[in-house]
Amino acid sequence: MSHASITAAVCAAATAVVVAGGATVVPARASGTPATTSAAPAATAAFTDIYFTFDDGPHPTWTPRVLAVLRKYNARATFFMVGQNVVRYPYLLSSVRAYGHHTSNHTWSHPNLTQLSTASVTWQLNKTDAAMGSTRRKCVRPPYGATNDRIRSIISARGQRQVLWNIDTRDWSRPGTTTIYNRIVYNARPGRIVLMHDGGGDRSQTVAALDRALANLRSRGYTFRYIPYC
Ligand SMILES: [Zn+2]
Asked: Do the domain assignments include residue 57?
């Protein structure tokens, strides 16, 4: 499924970023060799956090494989789930939560919300929230990042928060493991949200790139958390 990024394009320049504790975070070479210039651990975890997000699942093949990679690095992430997949694979919703991740609303059937009536948008969000538990999810990610003032208002009137992303890996287009990996490690900065997918098609490149990227980022002092407000 195509996701058009509407966030500002991230700068691909290899700019060093000094994080808490004096560790200098430098994008690694494409070879995957860590380029951390200081081994000093960051003193403030918040300044080393990066937020991986996974859309379009859960999926019986790919969600467990993503979970296994995240576990390997003791990483936490946020999963934006499609409601009709949640009811198809309810055990995967439980698995994702059991591993300590957070789950949020990615609509019932993955439509472009800007093309739906307000009643239909509300239906999409309600049905998904109901499938995911007794309370509304804290965050909503509109499919394709397609949103406008009306959609933002609907979401916020529900007491939910719209969440897009900073780093679009475009993993859904299967550009190759190394390309996905490079998009992550060259654009990583503390506080950024990374968009990946555990559903919507063959995600073997996503799984492989995630494994390499987490190894690289961990060596550079990053910590992997779910989005704190989701
Ligand atoms: Zn999606």
From this structure: yes
Catalytic site positions: 55, 197
Per-residue tokens: 116? 């739906």
Closest residue by Cα to residue 20 from 49, 41, 42: 42
Domain count, the chain: 1
Short-list 142, 208, 109, 161, CA closest to 3: 142
CA of 50 from ligand 1 middle (Å) equals 20
Classify 28 as helix, strand or coil: coil
Q: CA-based angle 182:32:183, to the nearest 5?
A: 10
How far does residue 123's CA lie from ligand 1's centre (Å)? 17
User: Which residues have C-beta under 5 Å from ligand 1, the single-atom ion?
Assistant: 55-56, 143
134-159, pLDDT tens digit by residue? 899 999 999 999 999 999 999 999 99
Domain assignment present for 1:
no
Confidence (pTM): 0.81
Question: Ligand 1 mean position to 178 CA, how many Å?
Answer: 22
Distances (CA, A) of 35 to 20, 32, 121: 17, 9, 45
Per residue in 37-93, pLDDT tens? 333 444 444 689 999 999 999 999 999 999 999 999 999 999 999 999 999 999 999
Q: How far apart are CA 116 and CA 141, in angstroms?
A: 15
pLDDT for 39 equals 39
Give the chain's end-to-end CA distance (angstroms, integer): 23
Domain extent, residue 87, equals 46-224
CATH of the domain at 156: 3.20.20.370
Q: Which helix (H) or strand (E) holds 121?
A: helix 118-132
